[in-house]
Design a protein that fits this description.
Layout (H helix, E strand, L loop, with lengths): L1 H13 L9 E3 L5 E6 L4 E6 L1 H12 L5 E3 L1 H7 L5 E3 L13 E3 L4 H25 L1
Parallel strand pairs: 1-4
Antiparallel strand pairs: 2-3, 4-6, 5-6
Length: about 130
């Protein structure tokens, strides 16, 4: 995703169009997924502390960064090169945050993980949408 954004921004810059960067926030945990609301207004959504923390991580992420929560950090140790960033105060249940910057072979491993997650998300969405 970061590589694709970088390529797109190069093309936009060559055409004198506005450019931007993407920051990614990843969290792991339980969430409630499904139709939420009433007869008057119903939305398919995800809710819960896990989702709130993921949204906060995304807000913290600067362009080109991938910020992960503590549980994802524990699951990812040894698979990716991870640099501890900082603790951020928050009203939601937020623990230590980490910046994951991948280089070399580890970067391709990260791409495979994101592609797999994307495919799973698409399959889930398609199964629910039909």
């Amino acid at each position: 995703m970061q590589d694709a954004t970088e390529e797109l921004m190069k093309a936009r810059a060559e055409q004198d169009e506005e450019t931007f960067e993407v920051g990614i926030g990843i969290n792991t945990g339980n969430a409630i997924v499904g139709n939420v609301g009433s007869e008057n207004r119903m939305d398919y959504t995800v809710i819960g502390d896990t989702v709130n923390v993921a949204a906060r991580l995304e807000q913290i992420a600067k362009g080109g960064e991938i910020i992960i929560g503590e549980q994802k950090y524990r699951q990812s140790q040894g698979r990716f090169r991870i640099q501890k960033k900082a603790k951020y105060p928050s009203k939601i249940k937020l623990s230590q945050l980490y910046v994951m910057r991948c280089q070399g072979e580890q970067e391709s491993a990260l791409k495979r993980v994101f592609l797999r997650l994307y495919k799973i998300g698409c399959m889930f969405f398609n199964s629910v949408a039909t």
